[in-house]
Amino acid sequence: MKKNTLLAFTCILFMTTTSAQRPIDGLAHRILGDQDTKFVFVYQSDTVDYFQIETVEVDSDRSGHRHKIRITGNNDNSLAVGLNYYLKHIAGVHVSWLLCEPIELPEAFKLPLETIRKEALVKDRFFLNYCTYGYTMPWWKWPQWERFIDWMALNGINMPLAITGQEAVWYEVWKEFGMTDEEIRSYFSGPAHLPWHRMANLDGFGGPLPMSWLEGQKELQRQIVQREREFNMTPVLPAFAGHVPKRFAEMHPEADIQQLSAWCGFEPTHFLNSSDTLFAKIQQSFMEKEIALFGTDHIYGVDPFNEMDPPSWEPDYLANVARNIYTSLQQSDPEARWLQMTWVFYYKRKSWTPERLRAYLTAVPQDKLVLLDYFCEKTEVWRTTEGFYGQPFIWCYLGNFGGNTMLVGNINELEKKLDAALKEAGPNMTGIGSTLESFDVSPQIYEYLFDRAWESQPDVHQWIDDWNYLRTGNQLYKDNWQLLNDSIYKDWSFYGLGTQLVARPSLEGHGTYYTKPYYSYNNDTLKRICMAFILHFSYNDGGFSAGTVYKDSYNYDLVNLFSQWMGNHFMDIRNDFTVAYKNRDIKEMERQVKLANQLFEDVDALLNTHPAFMLGPWIEAARDWGTTKKEKDYYERQARTLLTVWGGPVLNDYANRMWGGLVKDYYAKRWNLFFKAVIKAVKEGREFDEKAFGEELSKFEHKWPESHTKYPVAPQPVDRKIIGLHPNHPTYKAAWTIFERWMRG
Question: What is the pTM of this model?
Answer without folding.
Answer: 0.94
